[in-house]
Amino acid sequence: MTAAPLLSPRMSGITASPASVLRRRARELRAAGRDIIELSSGNLDFPTPDHVIAAAHAAALRGETRYTDVDGTPELKRAVQAALLRDHHLDYGPDEIVITNGSTQALFNALLATLAPDDEVIIPAPYWAPYLDQVRLAGAAPVVVPCAQNNGFKLRAEDLQAAISARTRWIIVNNPVNPSGALYSRDNLSEIATVLLRHPEIRVLADGLYEHIVFNGSPAPTLAEIEPRLKPRTLTVSGLAKSYAMMGWRIGYAAGPAALIRAMITIQSQTTSGASSISQAAAIAALDGAQDVLLARAAILRAKRDRFAELVNECAGLSCTPPEGTFYLLVACAGIIGKRAPDGRVIRTDRDFSAYLLEAADVAVFPGEDLGLSPYIRLSFANPSSTIEEAARRLKRACAALQ
Ligand SMILES: Cc1ncc(COP(=O)(O)O)c(C=O)c1O
């Protein structure tokens, strides 16, 4: 008798997220004594603000260590409600909000609750890689729509229109975009909304995780805010990870139609039982507290962005434009492809180039192949200035060594 296969057919083609694989590899190399500079990470080098940590500590001492309501504590839901009103003039009731383990879980719960086999989800590229496998895990098919650099890596209305089929259930709109840093203006979103208004059966997953990491002073707009007619079919998703440098606290949230939120809560009740009680107390302090930290940190990141972009553009074969949001440079490396490394190997793809940079220069970067756009690499500038300078020196040397 042959043993039954270990894995479900659901797992075919699903891999560990590229970010987690890179994190593990960098850690292994460091453990082996290598001085790796990690430009591939989604972590910020800012600490979580002190008053947020103090709130978590106080909550733990007060005994807030039990399960909370599956959908989040009423206090955090109220803080999310107030933040959506303050930042986006969006009015959601408590039954239209759910707190999740990072925005990752909000996105997945929504997809799992709504998708059936053969359904399609439109994902503009370049993209945050987990969107694709989340859609596949939910049994549906991602439909990737390339967004060209000459349009600022933004989705064109005509390309969206062409990608829509009778099977389209969702479109995912991330603003600003990881990995390109593109920031959709209100006008850009209006153009997308115009197409979507012609297709009332399509729902909108608006991912605003980097909404406060923008360099023009106001939170990135989101679709439900600029087109109220889309609000009844939009799920507005965000989280605390990037805005408040709370990556490891794992708090995200979603706001949308009550029926969808109820289904997401049902899934959550059967899977994670909800988010950490201590992290939820911390999130209240972050959302309710003084918000000037957001602008101050964005200004620091802006200076790092400008400096790093200048240095990267001095590297032979690389070019980039400073992004309007996020903390990533999306760097074109077409000028590297076809060159030969000192060990004789030819660099044929951005994945080869990333491997070369890791092995020859001790710099970990994210290959565009995993982000839906080649040949590019993504570099984080949420690092200390000295690290950015050293990383640029290594990149310059590594690029100059190619023939
Ligand atoms: C665009 C985007 N959405 C969602 C997430 C998920 O973040 P978290 O689960 O930490 O809230 C990330 C993480 O990097 C991201 O880049």
Automatic annotation (TrEMBL):
It comes from Bradyrhizobium brasilense. The keyword Transferase applies. Signal peptide: none annotated. Pfam families: Aminotran_1_2. This is Aminotransferase. SUPFAM superfamilies: PLP-dependent transferases. Residues 35-395 form the Aminotransferase class I/classII large domain. Its cofactor is pyridoxal 5'-phosphate. Keywords: Aminotransferase, Pyridoxal phosphate, Transferase.
